[in-house]
Amino acid sequence: MTARIIDGKALAASIREEVAQQVATLKTQGVTPGLAVVLVGDDPASHVYVRNKAAACEKAGLHSEIIRLDKDISQAQLLSVVHKLNDDPRIHGILVQLPLPPHLNSHIVIEAISAAKDVDGFHISNAGLLMTGKPLFRPCTPYGVMKMLEAENVSPWGAEAVIVGASNIVGKPMAMLLLAAGATVTLCNSKTRDLAAQTRRADILVVATGKPGMVNGDMIKPGATVIDVGINRLPDGRLVGDVEFESAKEVAGAITPVPGGVGPMTIAMLLVNTLEAAERCVSLSATQEA
Ligand SMILES: Nc1nc(=O)c2c([nH]1)NC[C@@H]1CN(c3ccc(C(=O)N[C@@H](CCC(=O)O)C(=O)O)cc3)C=[N+]21
To answer: Which first-to-last residue range defines the signal peptide (predicted)?
Structure first.
C-alpha cells in the first residue's frame, strides 16, 4: 500500500482564504495588517521566497513591504532599519530573511525586532514563551506542520514523535509544539548514534536536516506520518526534500511531498501570525481607550 500524499498546497490555500476573510473584517475596523520583509543581499533563492511572501500578502489583502538592502550594509544600519519598522504603526509583522551575510550577527538582529512584531517567532522572548507553554507567535514552519497533522486527523496525543534536526527555527520549536499536544518527543541531531533505530519508532516523523535522502523507507515504521521539511535544490535543478520520497511512500501511511508540502504552509502561517499581530494591536488600543 502506498502512502496518502498530504496536500500542503491545498491546505495552505484554504488557510490563506480564511485569513483573507478575517483581514476584510479587520479593515472595517480601520486596520490593515502589515508585514515588512527585510532582505539583505542578492541571493536569487531568497528573492524568490520573498516575492512569494509578498504575493501571498497581496492576495489576502494584507499590506506588505519588501525592504531590499545592499549586501554590504553595516550591522548598525540594519539595526536602524529594524528600529524604524518597530516604530511604524502600519507594520504589525517584521521578518528579516535568513541567512544574513556572514559579517552580520543574526542573533543581535533578531533580538532587535520587537517581540510583538516577531511573526517568525524567532525572538528569544517568543522562544521562551513557547517553551513555557504560553506561545505568542509560533514559528511558521512547525506551526504549519501542526495544522497539517490536524487536517489529516493525525493526533499527537500519546504518539511517538521523532524529529530529525534540532535547529532553533524548526526542530526545537517543533518539539515544543508536539510535546504540548501530548506526544512523547525524541529530538535527534547529527550525533545521534543509531538514527534508524530512533526513526523506526516514530508514529509521527519530522525531518528537518537540509540533507537530501537523510531518511529512506527502511527507516520508517509502517503506517507512520512522515513530514519532510527539507527543501534542497539539486544540481539538475530539481527540488527535493530530506526524505527519499520513492522508498518512503511505500512504507508510510501519509507523507508530505516537496514541493507542495510544508513550504506553502510556512507562508500561510506567516500570514496567520501577521493577522494575529494586527488583531492584538486592535484589542490593545481598545483596552487603552476604555
Ligand atoms: N526569517 C526567515 N523566515 C522564514 O520563514 C524563512 C527564512 N527566513 N529564510 C528562508 C526560509 C525558506 N522559507 C521557505 C518558505 C516557503 C517555501 C515554499 O513555498 N516552497 C515551495 C516551492 C518554492 C520553489 O519552487 O522554490 C514548496 O515547497 O512547494 C520555501 C521556503 C522560509 N524561510
So the answer is: none
Q: pLDDT of 204-227, one tens digit each?
A: 999 999 999 999 999 999 999 999
- Distance CA(41)–CA(43), nearest Å, equals 6
53: annotated active-site residue: yes
Task: Provide the residue range defining the domain that includes 187.
Answer: 140-263
Q: pTM for this structure?
A: 0.97
ipTM over 0.90: yes
Closest-lying ligand 1 atom to the alpha carbon of residue 99: 9
Given 22, 117, 118, 120, the catalytic residue: 120
107 in a structural domain: yes
Q: Is 113 marked as a binding-site residue?
A: no
Give the domain CATH number at 50: 3.40.50.10860
Number of domains in the chain: 2
DSSP class of residue 90? T
> From CA 133, how far away is CA 114, in angstroms rounded?
20
Cell of 18: 480564511
